[in-house]
Design brief:
Elements: E1 22-25, H1 29-37, E2 45-49, E3 62-64, H2 65-70, E4 77-88, E5 91-104, H3 106-114, E6 121-124, E7 127-133, E8 139-143, E9 146-150, E10 152-155, E11 175-181, E12 191-195, E13 204-211, E14 214-221, H4 229-238, E15 247-252, E16 259-260, E17 263-265, H5 281-299, H6 305-317, H7 320-332, H8 338-348, H9 351-363, H10 368-371
Parallel strand pairs: 1-2, 1-10, 2-6, 4-12, 10-17
Antiparallel strand pairs: 3-5, 4-5, 7-8, 8-9, 11-14, 11-15, 12-13, 13-14, 16-17
Bound molecules: flavin-adenine dinucleotide.
Residues 26-31, 48-51, 56, 58-63, 126-127, 156-158, 162, 178-180, 218, 248-249, 251, 267-268, 273, 278-282, 284 line the site of flavin-adenine dinucleotide.
């Protein structure tokens, strides 16, 4: 449940005129992953969010366990789920995955990530829009606490893509919508459960993620026009649970440009949430790390802003194919007759196929990437190019 910790009113002083080398807007999965890559780089890093770090959970918080381990976030795990089950109107299948999911505690995970962000500074502020680009190359970002400027600016603010104009706005934008409830749970279960039934949602799916003392039961619709409250309540009641502690949000289902003008985008702001599954935490980590490595190359004089923007965009574009495949499946699967879908799920249930399919899926943003400790190939550009006007 949300506990408000954010300072308000007189507790908020002005940040007008503040300058940093790197300004990261958004302190959730993507933003913290960027900041983590800049730890001990010597850069002045300022992270902004409208809420305190970890205050506002917006997802079911299930992530492949190998990613949580690779990032040193294992202590936030609430329940490990080695299986997935898929239920259609014609039956259920249960897969043993080649890796496991883990549900985690959002606040704890964010705090653990933040502890790895070195000297980075955090302020609560609502980011309103992009301001002007100054003669020295720095960029103004307008917030409700004043204008802040930095040469390197990251939008990790989620689906709305605040630092571009116009913003993404549902229902026209390629966005899905999700809502879930968090009733009490007894810690039982070893599977992340999925329901693909048109009676629940026409184009989308329902889920139950056991998380020790609570279950996260929700419904996601690929169609932004379809409301998901009724189906969420219905699924929760069908599972014999009270629909309490609601949380919901939009999430993108189409890859977007990862740079625009002088701005870097990571996570949902760049459409990094994977279509079909709606899994966006792992990819926010993955692209956040890639972005952070490019920024670090600039800070260390191995690159400049223009080269870093180009390299990061090229890294992003290198992932177009898997995102396109997943989007095609997102369109195809809801159109399949339940009988065909059930038969397909049964065929995939062969362990060798499960291992290959879910191995491919994990490989699209593999946990080893977190451990590489070096910038993505595209960033190994040059030696001494430094961004003009970077205040140190
Ligand atoms: C109901 C639901 C369940 C989901 N479950 C899962 C799941 O189990 N596993 C999974 O992998 N994915 C899941 N997703 C998708 C996942 O939540 C997103 O893809 C993921 O959160 C993206 O991370 P992010 O850091 O890019 O953005 P976000 O997590 O959305 O973070 C954006 C941050 O920016 C801040 N912010 C936004 N606007 C402003 C502003 N104007 N000024 C200042 N701060 C601002 C927010 O407070 C927030 O901290 C789910 C989505 C929904 C809606």
């Amino acid at each position: 449940m949300t506990v408000r910790a954010t300072s308000r009113g007189a507790q908020r002083t002005s940040l007008e005129g503040t300058r940093a080398e790197v300004l990261i807007c958004g302190a959730s999965f993507a933003g913290l992953a960027v900041a983590r890559e800049l730890a001990s780089s010597g850069a002045s890093v300022l992270v902004l969010d409208r809420y305190e770090i970890g205050e506002r959970q917006t997802s079911a918080c299930a992530c492949p366990t190998p990613w949580l381990e690779a990032l040193g976030l294992g202590a936030s795990i609430k329940q490990e789920l080695p299986y997935m089950s898929f239920t259609t109107p014609r039956g259920s299948v249960r897969y043993r995955l080649p890796w496991s999911w883990s549900s985690f505690d959002y606040r704890q995970l964010c705090e653990l990530l933040w502890a790895q962000c070195g000297e980075a500074r955090f302020e609560t502020a609502k980011v309103e829009s992009l301001g002007q680009r100054r003669a020295d190359g720095t960029v103004d970002v307008i917030t409700d606490r004043g204008t802040i400027s930095a040469p390197l600016v990251v939008d990790a603010l989620g689906w709305r893509r605040v630092l571009c104009s116009p913003h993404y706005q549902p229902p026209e934008a390629p966005l899905s919508r999700g809502l879930e409830v968090h009733p009490e749970h007894d810690g039982s279960g070893d599977a992340l459960e999925i329901w693909i039934e048109r009676s629940i949602v026409r184009r989308g799916y329902g889920w139950r993620v056991p998380a020790a003392d609570e279950a996260r039961i929700g419904v996601g619709s690929y169609d932004p026009n379809q409301h998901v409250k009724e189906p969420t309540v219905a699924l929760s009641e069908r599972l014999g649970r009270d629909p309490i502690n609601y949380q919901g949000n939009w999430f993108p289902h189409r890859l977007r440009a990862a740079t625009e003008g002088d701005i870097f985008f990571a996570g949902d702001s760049a459409g990094h949430c994977f279509p079909l599954s709606g899994e966006g935490i792992r990819t926010a980590f993955y692209f956040g790390i890639a972005c952070g490595r490019e920024l670090r190359a600039v800070i260390e004089g191995r690159s400049d802003r223009a080269a870093a923007l180009a390299a990061y965009e090229s890294f992003n574009s290198g992932h177009k194919r898997p995102f396109a495949i997943a989007l095609a499946l997102q369109r195809l699967i809801p159109a399949l007759p339940p009988r065909v879908l059930t038969a397909l799920l049964a065929i995939i249930g062969n362990q060798r196929i499960v291992d290959r399919a879910f191995g491919w899926y994990l490989d699209q943003a593999a946990p080893e990437f977190a451990e590489l400790g070096s910038p993505p190939e595209a960033s190994k550009l040059s030696d001494t190019r430094v961004l003009a006007g970077v205040p140190r």
